[in-house]
Amino acid sequence: MENKLKLKEIVVIAMLSAILGVVFTGMDSLYQPIQNILGPLGGDMIGGIYFLSALLPAFIVRKPGAAITGSLFTGVMNLLLGSPYGIHIIVASALQGIAVEIVLSLGRYKSYSILSMALSAMLATIFVTTRDYFVFGLNLYANMIFVMIVIRLISAAVLGAGLSMILGNGLKSTGVLNGFRINKSKNLY
């Protein structure tokens, strides 16, 4: 089986990325008010949804490069739509995509179980949280950092990995992903 991304796969990744870029731009406007109401843990609770940009394309396409392509396309779309995070969104996108690629490569891009998807999301969380620690001052929350990381990891596993699998399998059931590797999987999760 060829592991190189085909044009139709890149087009689907780009379409998903465009949709997610719009969704994330909308979420960016909710993220700060949620943090203002619930404190720093509020943003951590919903932050896992941002990992859809790497996880959903990886789950559907199941080839090397799908995660990094999807996350970078989404980051660029989000940036072009006016993300308040500026170029930092591209850095976060790259970190997410690289993390997902690392975990999936350990299984030779054959395992897309809830465990491998959750581990991918969790490594992405660790990568992005490390960046946040130095760039956005998470070190100022030293007494809360452990709780913040735990909440981020849970959010990544549930909202990132879980939602990616639900959305991917939902799209699969419609038939629009015929010809994609997701259709070769026997079980849904």
Descriptive terms for the model:
mainly alpha; 0% strand
What does this structure look like?
The chain has 189 residues and is mainly α. The chain has helices spanning 7-38, 40-46, 52-61, 66-80, 88-106, 114-135, 145-174. Helix 4 (66-80) packs antiparallel against helix 5 and helix 5 (88-106) runs antiparallel to helix 6. The protein starts with 6 loop residues before the first helix and ends in a 15-residue tail after the last helix.
Strand-helix topology:
Blueprint: H1 7-38, H2 40-46, H3 52-61, H4 66-80, H5 88-106, H6 114-135, H7 145-174
Helix pairs in contact: 1-2, 1-3, 1-4, 2-7, 3-4, 3-5, 3-7, 4-5, 5-6, 6-7
| Count of helical regions | 7
Structural class: mainly alpha
Characterize the biggest β-sheet: none
- Mean pLDDT figure: 93
Pattern of helices and strands = HHHHHHH
- Measured distance between first and last alpha carbons: 22 Å
